[in-house]
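Researcher: Go.
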Amino acid sequence: THPALARLLLHRYDEALASPAVRPPTALAPA
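Model: Structure:
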């Protein structure tokens, strides 16, 4: 996998977690 792509995905995931209005799909959430 591309390091930059992984960083981007993690950044977007962190933004989603930080936002109370936006929740990540349960399929992507590692419980």
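Model: Helices lie at 3-18.
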